[in-house]
Amino acid sequence: MDRAAPFLRAVLATSVVLAALLAMRLGLDRRAGRMPVPAGWSATSTCFDVAGATADPGLRCAARPGVDEAAPLPPCATREARARVEFLAQRCNWHGRRLVLAPVAAGGPCAPRLVPLPAALRVALGIPLDPGTAARADLEALPGVGSGTARRIVEAQERLGASFRLDAVPGLGPRRAARIAPLLQSVPAAPPECGGPP
Fewer CB within 10 Å, N side or C side of the chain? Predict the structure, then answer.
């Protein structure tokens, strides 16, 4: 039985991930292409995710994110880590981002940082992707966009640069372009102290 334990853990972990993805996919509102919004959401909310050494991991929306929403646990319950979370709350846009409460290196000090949410989750929440930074796999999270269309969007973006327009993508009709336009917009880059692109 001991030899089979790692294999069984891997099968269980894979099953949990697939079940979560299936549940997320089934939870999508097909007409709007979005998941039901998290509790606490309003038009002025900031929706973000918290992961790592936290008492309350997961997606949430708040008017003003901060240490209270992060609920850090050891090793991130230090004064320095809490000060970094407050710095991020005051200076950075958390919308569509994940607050990671974890050391950068094993055994190191806690280094709270903001990273982008996965593209599928951003799209499900209605948070736009930046065509200048989105990878082909990210673009496939858009409603009605498969691998071929994603490839053509990337090619058009590389060809046109800052003057990119959806109507310049070959094979993308006006209805589909109108459907994905709100989810594909240029987003200003986050300052380096906030952790890179949104």
Answer: N
Contact call for residues 130 and 98 (beta carbons, < 8 A): no
CATH code, residues 128-183: 1.10.150
Task: Return the pLDDT at 182.
Answer: 92
Residues 6+ apart with CB under 8 A from 176: 144, 145, 149
pTM of the model: 0.67
Nearest to 59 by CA among 104, 125, 129: 125
Sign of CA dihedral 140, 143, 146, 148: negative
Q: How far apart are alpha carbons 39 and 133 in whole angstroms?
A: 29
**Where do the domains of the chain lie?**
46-118, 128-183
